Amino acid sequence: MDGVPARLPAATAGIGLRAPHYREIAERLPAVGLLEIHSENFFGEGGPALAWLERLRRDYALSLHGVGLSLGSVDPLDRRHLAKLAALADRFEPALVSEHLAWSSWGGRHANDLLPLPFTRECADHLVARIGEAQEALRRQILVENVSAYMTFTESTLAEAEFVTEVARRAGCGILLDVNNVHVNATNHGFDANAYIDAIVPELVGEMHLAGFERDGGLLIDTHGARVAAPVWQLYERAIERIGPRPTIVEWDVAIPPLDVLLGEASRARAAQQRVAA
Amino acid sequence: MIALGARQRAMMEALFGDTEPAPPLAVYRRNVLESFRGALAATYPVVERLVGPAFFAEAARRFALASPSTSGDLAEYGADFAAFLSRYEHARAHPYLPDVARLEWACHRSLHSPEAGSFDFAALADLAPERYGELRFTMNPSLHLLRSRHPIAAIWEANQPDRDGTPERGRGGERVVVWRDASGVRVLPLDEATWSFLTVLASGGTLAEAIDDARGLADAAATLTRFVADRILAGFDAAPRA
């Protein structure tokens, strides 16, 4: 399709594209490096959301970020879901396609949430096979994102960073490093966020995410409903120093703020990338 | 060691079980139920406004526990909410609620349905007028036809964000057509004759059959012209010659 080229520079930042901002972005064409959508929001066969995306794709590179494939589930991979994702990718020629190291369905029932996985060899093997299946169906490499978790599993035998790295390396996929999720999990489960970042193999990382969390009692909850917190910005700077700059998306999904607030967060990410490059 | 499948099964049962699970899973249960409530509220804003957010949240919670989501795409969630409401004892004070929900589901489906092709006026102009009766029409793919014993279109209109909730037509059943044009999803009540006319066309009948069925339709030509102009009818086929 017509549009800006799919290839992205490593040092670039963008925002999660959400419905309240479609028109304003199309009219103002703000200077962001890319837009990221939740793939499932564009699974319809027609309608205004797809029409807006057609229009915006002419001016922006695109990232497809899936939330519903349930890669970690022991249920069979949903071929219908995968076919819709493949059709969306063929139509919009995104620079990046990503999913999560999570599961969301069992026995045909969907929780439509990113549920955590135990960090075991069994689970790593399972993910490697599933990611392989997905990449084959999509005929392209995908990125997989580390998720926030509010629980740990007694059966886990690997540290999270080790697990994520092993899965990506063996599956031949990339990592979407969600820096907020690293901070949330480090706080919730008491590990060193810096050590996590240092354990990630830089060459595997194809994208980074930033978002805001909220506090619920003793837990940090990854709500995507607030500004990026100060310790997450610090961790992000460390990540780009160690790993190098990567296309970065600021996500905001609940209580969506005016576009300028999101653009401001993306500019801040871009400024951090420039500082590190300098 | 707990196998992956056993772990997932146990977590799923805790998330959707009858009792509140222990703390870590309780957080997930709360998040999951809240996200289902949000998805349902996005699809059924009029139902939510009619019953209020607290009543709606409780109905949504019970619906989420009783009626599993079967897709990774939340847009497919809530197809059977109208059926749930018709069985929901606490909704009995609102007998029109299930049909309003059916109307909102039709709007939701309509919003995401394929685009209608463009009507081929030139081909129609080429057709000999004596063959008009043989015409069969292709509907806009976003078209839904609903019928209720309640004034569901009036209730729906009155509960759009810019309205105060007072329906302009308070009693009697309504026949409603839902479809999407360039301006968005449209909801239009039809009188009985116009409804019959469109129903015959939508089920594949010829124009002659539709006119025959819609006794009392004052001006079939004007109605047809309006349906074409409004994009309710997307195209036509001339019947094969006998």
Describe the structure.
The complex is a heterodimer of chains A (278) and B (242). Chain A is built from nine helices and twelve strands. Chain A is α/β, with parallel strands linked by helices. In chain A, the strands form three sheets. Chain A has an eight-stranded parallel barrel with strand order 1-2-3-4-7-8-9-12, surrounded by four helices. In chain A, strands 5-6 form a two-stranded antiparallel sheet. In chain A, α5 links the parallel β7 and β8. In chain A, α7 (193-199) packs parallel to α8. Chain A is globular and about 50 Å long. By secondary structure, chain B is mainly alpha-helical. Chain B has helices at 4-15, 23-43, 45-51, 53-66, 81-87, 97-112, 121-126, 152-158, 192-202, 207-213, 220-229, and strands spanning 136-139, 144-148, 174-181, 184-190, 233-237. The longest helix of chain B has 21 residues, at 23-43. Chain B is elongated. The model of chain B has no long low-confidence stretch (mean pLDDT 94). The interface between A and B is large, with 44 and 39 residues.
